[in-house]
TrEMBL record:
<dbReference type="GO" id="GO:0009800">
    <property type="term" value="P:cinnamic acid biosynthetic process"/>
</dbReference>
<dbReference type="GO" id="GO:0051289">
    <property type="term" value="P:protein homotetramerization"/>
</dbReference>
<dbReference type="InterPro" id="IPR005921">
    <property type="entry name" value="HutH"/>
</dbReference>
<comment type="similarity">
    <text>Belongs to the PAL/histidase family.</text>
</comment>
<dbReference type="InterPro" id="IPR001106">
    <property type="entry name" value="Aromatic_Lyase"/>
</dbReference>
<keyword id="KW-0456">Lyase</keyword>
<dbReference type="InterPro" id="IPR008948">
    <property type="entry name" value="L-Aspartase-like"/>
</dbReference>
<dbReference type="InterPro" id="IPR024083">
    <property type="entry name" value="Fumarase/histidase_N"/>
</dbReference>
<dbReference type="GO" id="GO:0004397">
    <property type="term" value="F:histidine ammonia-lyase activity"/>
</dbReference>
<dbReference type="GO" id="GO:0005737">
    <property type="term" value="C:cytoplasm"/>
</dbReference>
<comment type="pathway">
    <text>Amino-acid degradation; L-histidine degradation into L-glutamate; N-formimidoyl-L-glutamate from L-histidine: step 1/3.</text>
</comment>
<dbReference type="GO" id="GO:0045548">
    <property type="term" value="F:phenylalanine ammonia-lyase activity"/>
</dbReference>
<keyword id="KW-0369">Histidine metabolism</keyword>
<dbReference type="GO" id="GO:0019557">
    <property type="term" value="P:L-histidine catabolic process to glutamate and formate"/>
</dbReference>
<protein>
    <recommendedName>
        <fullName>Histidine ammonia-lyase</fullName>
        <ecNumber>4.3.1.3</ecNumber>
    </recommendedName>
</protein>
<dbReference type="Pfam" id="PF00221">
    <property type="entry name" value="Lyase_aromatic"/>
</dbReference>
<dbReference type="GO" id="GO:0019556">
    <property type="term" value="P:L-histidine catabolic process to glutamate and formamide"/>
</dbReference>
Length: 513
């Protein structure tokens, strides 16, 4: 089975995804073990000294004023895990928990936390055994790290609480550790704190979201091209020289994608025939500008994620042989881009819904039957599919409200400003699911419209024909009398979500951006 070797230097985003989604094994490199051993010696020296050091020989947060005697420190570290494992609500997805654990392990391996190598080896063993701690939806304020989610993971290392096994069933953590020959960890100075104090949950969800949104942006370019074709629009607005005079890279990439999908179409350019129009509507003509802005937003988010991947987020940290308090655990950098992406997602969906509505409105569809119905009046066609799409877009607009502008003081005002980055990440994951459904409905409507429009003389583009073949082969039926619509909309969503839509277009165009 493939593996990711974790060094004292940061992993790549691809390696995080491989562990989170691909279940690859994790190994600790010798340089990572050496870095951990070196930082641990610093912690051991401080633990033996009479001066109090935060996280080593004191309480935590607002309770840091108390110095903790050596005989109580193991209990102190165990207690912070137990008390902080205070999440509530639905369980967080397995891929998110695996990403969170791997990213915390990455920070341990950096040699800046002072944690013993055996703790890191135990966390790697959990990942490799397919043991996934139960982490709950609510509990993180995104400052001092994702405390409650990370505490639930640390609790499993102690052999306490519940976790999911490789079989997908819930078991006691003690049972799962015993089954896989993993000894419960007994924490020493600073180790409980170091297992909890990071932005790993929100960063893991950002990395997962960047991967998913990249695919959805390409899907949106394909569905926009299909709709332009179905509306007999003009592809002239996609000419590279037009986008060169406004040199946003994302815009140029989206226009190029649409241009390649539409190459060889017999349907485009007929906007002057039955119902002459000088220009296509904004939702069609400006598709590259909106999707392109989303691409550039995504590029910024990826840059932030790369910087955060290179970080060792903990407090205090071991740097140059000393232990220093800091504020690097604050989630603002990650929270901001998570919110920024949610705005881009909502706007992309809003434009897709407007294109779908145009396909269904006989006054604006340039000759297509009302609602793409077989016998309008007897049949309603896709009328209510657009209602569903509109409801999804409305939800997306609410999800675009930034979480990071909110802050609720905690820990007796010691932690008086928090990022809410975890909340931003959770709503972005929901938003991406809704965007997938919105694009699925546009995909379904556009393919039906093209089949209604196409004739022997007006043939769709070769890439469009490949998409139509994939749609029909994937279980998406063509035009006809009304039938139970929900299952077909679910098929369309699936074809977008699993990449089938993009792969079908790429079978003709080659790789799209």
């Amino acid at each position: 089975m493939p593996s990711v070797v974790l060094h004292s230097t940061p992993p790549t985003a691809a390696e995080v995804l491989a562990v989170a989604r691909g279940n690859v094994l994790v190994e600790l490199a010798d340089d990572a073990v050496a870095a951990m051993d070196a930082s641990r010696r610093v912690i051991d020296e401080l633990a033996a000294a009479p001066e109090p050091v935060y996280g080593v020989s004191t309480g935590f947060g607002a309770l840091a004023v108390r110095s903790i005697a050596p005989e109580l420190r193991t209990r102190l570290q165990r207690n912070i895990v137990r008390s902080h494992a205070a999440g509530l609500g639905p369980r967080v997805e397995r891929e998110v928990v695996r990403a969170l654990m791997f990213l915390r392990l990455k920070t341990l391996a950096s040699g800046h936390t002072g944690v013993r190598a055996e703790v890191a080896h135990a966390m790697a063993a959990l990942l490799n055994a397919g043991i996934t701690p139960v982490v709950h939806e609510h509990g993180s304020l995104g400052c001092s790290g994702d405390l409650a989610p990370l505490a639930h993971c640390a609790l499993t290392l102690l052999g306490e609480g519940q976790a999911e096994g490789r079989d997908g069933e819930l078991h006691s953590a003690a049972e799962l550790l015993d089954r896989h020959g993993i000894a419960p960890v007994e924490l020493r100075e600073k180790e409980g704190l170091a297992l909890l104090n990071g932005t790993d949950g929100m960063l893991g969800m950002l990395l997962l979201a960047c991967e998913d949104l990249g695919r959805l942006l390409t899907s949106a370019d394909v569905t926009a091209a299909l709709t332009l074709e179905a509306l007999l629009g003009t592809e002239q607005v996609l000419a590279p020289e037009l986008h060169a005079v406004r040199p946003h890279p994302g815009q140029a990439a989206s226009a190029a994608n649409m241009r390649r999908v539409l190459a060889g179409s017999g349907l485009t350019g007929h906007h002057q025939d039955s119902a002459p129009r000088v220009q296509d509507a904004y939702s069609v003509r400006c598709a590259p500008q909106v999707a392109g802005a989303g691409r550039d937003t995504l590029a910024h988010a990826r840059a932030v994620a790369e910087r955060e991947l290179a970080a060792a987020v903990d407090n205090p940290v071991v740097v140059d042989g000393r232990v220093s308090s800091n504020g690097n655990f604050h989630g603002a950098p990650v929270g901001y881009v998570l919110d920024f992406l949610a705005i881009a997602v909502a706007d992309l969906a809003s434009m897709a819904e407007r294109r779908t509505d145009r396909l269904l409105d006989r006054h604006r569809s340039h000759g297509l039957p009302p609602f793409l119905a077989d016998d309008p009046g007897v049949d309603s066609g896709l009328m209510i599919a657009q209602y569903t799409q509109a409801a999804l877009v409305s939800d997306l607009k609410r999800l675009a409200q930034p979480a990071s502008v909110d802050s609720i003081p905690s820990s007796a005002m010691q932690e008086d400003h928090v990022s809410m980055g975890w909340s931003a990440a959770r709503k972005l994951r929901t938003a991406l699911t809704l965007l997938t459904r919105v694009l699925g409905i546009e995909f379904y409507a556009a393919t039906r419209a093209i089949e209604l429009r196409a004739t022997a003389e007006l043939r769709p583009a070769p890439a469009t024909r490949a998409v139509l073949a994939a749609a029909r082969g994937g279980g998406l039926e063509g035009p006809g009398a009304d039938r139970f619509l929900a299952p077909e909309l679910a098929v369309a969503e699936h074809l977008v979500a699993d990449g089938s839509l993009v792969r079908a277009a790429e079978s003709v165009t080659g790789p799209l951006a």
